[in-house]
Design brief:
alpha+beta; ten-stranded mixed sheet; four-stranded antiparallel sheet; 12 helices
Length: 505
């Protein structure tokens, strides 16, 4: 191996290191292994692809506006509700509206006998709210009695009391009397509720001077709304209302049941009792106000009852009130929010990032499904020359070739590789020997690198000429290069006539 080649190998080792030498020993091309892929803008003049791309972009923009901003309110910082305040009070129907037992199908006719063991027809009592509601004024839930059973018991021996109830003392007796509470479904509830977030500083209430808007959603899809200028059960229900007035019958109807429907064990809801969960769903109305919806759900498979014991003054007798009725439980759910610039920007950036999906889908259709995909791909993908040739050049040679590159660019030609004497670069092609590194090659093949003595001739030009350049008065439009010199045996390239036309000499 010549001294010049040995010096060149030393330079290669210093430049590539042990890793580069190992790559060279495998016969691989390091430029091909670590090729970098970059983006190239190609304007494809085909209306079909353009319309597909614009259609996808329009769909994404509409999704961002309609769903992201209008439906989901992506401009709000939101918070899931954990709890709220609910205050309930029941009220019996006015005396003037009480119906005679003869007009109530579940009450015994006063002129006929009553069956105490019947599940459908019983004697009726006209209770007020303090008798029918138990316990009275409870938060989050209340119970309106629809059937009550009285059991009278007497202590078995004198002297037994709470203070002296020995092992022989017991209350005895199992005489029971059943009654329905007349028009229990016409009892009304005053519902007052309020909510406030922990991280979102927003609150609302359904009473006061700025009461929230709300609605009661029925099983058939109909709704009752607040505020309402009409009087309901003699109470105003407008913007300054003191809570919402709803009847027990309305809540049962909204849940899809009625007081006469079958209960848990085949008897009626009036006889067995029932649990009804009323969800108060809060949500934002616009960017600055709250609204709510009552959504009743009946637990028809579970009856409800509660027992109450009343003792005589001397504790010698007691009466057990076995109450069955409609228990109504209120649960606050939903989200509240407030305007937040960061939330708005996050929604916009996320939506706009989806525009890249339109380009990706269009590219896939263009490259794999369209009938002209081979033509599209030929314009889309381009492989450059092997830059190991550039790294092997001297500084003077690089300067000369960069000057040629500038001239050919001004002349409008795109055959950069050929203009520089590096051969033609096409899709998937390479101008160097395949899988053979130029910088890290230690072989004696001197033809792997272009000669360092190649010069170029530029045409005469009005601007100042580069120092040392030779300008012939005429030059050929095409020139054949001998194998092994400058162009490595590649076919000559013809350049269009012009101020910088001609072939490199």
């Amino acid at each position: 191996m010549s001294e010049t080649r040995a010096l060149q190998e030393g330079e290669d080792i210093g430049r590539c290191g042990a890793f580069g030498r190992w790559i060279a020993s495998k016969g691989w091309d390091i430029d091909e292994l670590f090729a970098y892929e970059t983006v190239k803008i190609v304007r494809v003049r085909d209306y079909k692809l353009g319309m597909i791309n614009y259609a996808f972009q329009l769909g994404i923009v509409l999704y961002l506006i309609i769903y992201g901003l209008i439906i989901s309110r992506g401009y709000l910082k939101t918070e899931e509700l954990q709890a709220g305040s609910v205050l309930l009070n029941a009220k019996a129907p006015p005396r003037i509206s009480r119906l005679n037992q003869n007009l109530l199908p579940y009450c015994c006719n006063t002129t006929g006998p009553c069956d105490n063991d019947s599940r459908l027809v019983l004697p009726c009592l006209y209770y007020d709210e303090y008798q029918a509601e138990y316990p009275v004024g409870k938060d989050y839930s209340t119970m309106v009695t629809s059937r009550i059973t009285f059991t009278e018991q007497t202590v078995n021996q004198p002297g037994c009391s709470f203070q002296s109830f020995n092992s022989d003392c017991a209350y005895e007796g199992d005489t029971q009397t059943n009654y329905f509470v007349a028009q229990a479904e016409n009892f009304t509830l005053r519902i007052r509720h309020a909510v406030r977030g922990s991280t979102v500083k927003r609150e609302g209430a359904n009473s006061g001077s700025n009461a929230m808007k709300g609605e009661l959603k029925f099983a058939d899809g109909s709704v009752r709304v607040w505020p309402d200028d009409q009087l309901w059960y003699g109470q105003p229900q407008n913007e300054t209302r003191n809570g919402d007035i709803v009847s027990v019958g309305e809540l049962l109807e909204a849940s899809g049941l009625g007081s006469g429907d079958a209960g848990a064990d085949g008897a009626t809801v009036r006889y067995d009792g029932l649990n009804v969960i009323v969800y108060i769903r809060y949500q934002m109305s616009g960017a600055s106000s709250l609204k709510y919806t009552y959504e009743p759900r009946a637990l028809s498979s579970a009856e409800f009852k509660v027992e109450q014991t009343v003792y005589s003054e001397d504790q010698s007798t007691r009466t057990i009130y076995n109450r069955h009725g409609v228990r109504i439980i209120f649960v606050a759910i939903g989200t509240i929010g407030e305007f937040d610039f960061l939330a708005l920007m996050t929604t916009l950036v996320t939506g706009l990032a989806l525009l890249a999906v339109a380009t990706t889908v269009t590219n896939m259709l263009m490259s794999y499904l369209m009938s002209m995909r081979m033509v599209y791909n030929k314009h889309k993908y381009e492989t450059t020359e092997d830059f190991s040739s550039w790294r092997s050049m001297s500084a003077e040679e690089k300067a000369r070739r960069l000057e040629i590159l500038a001239h050919t660019s001004e002349g409008g030609t795109t055959h950069t590789s050929a203009a520089l004497g590096l051969g033609h670069a096409g899709p998937g092609g390479s101008h160097h020997h395949p899988w053979k590194p130029a910088d890290c090659d230690s072989s004696d093949d001197e033809d792997d690198k272009p000669t360092a003595t190649t010069t170029f001739h530029a045409p005469a030009a009005p601007q100042a000429a580069p120092q040392g350049a030779q300008y012939p008065t005429a030059y050929p439009q095409q020139q054949q290069y001998p194998p092994g010199q400058y162009n490595n045996g590649y076919p000559p390239v013809a350049y269009p006539a012009g101020p910088y036309g001609g072939s490199v000499a």
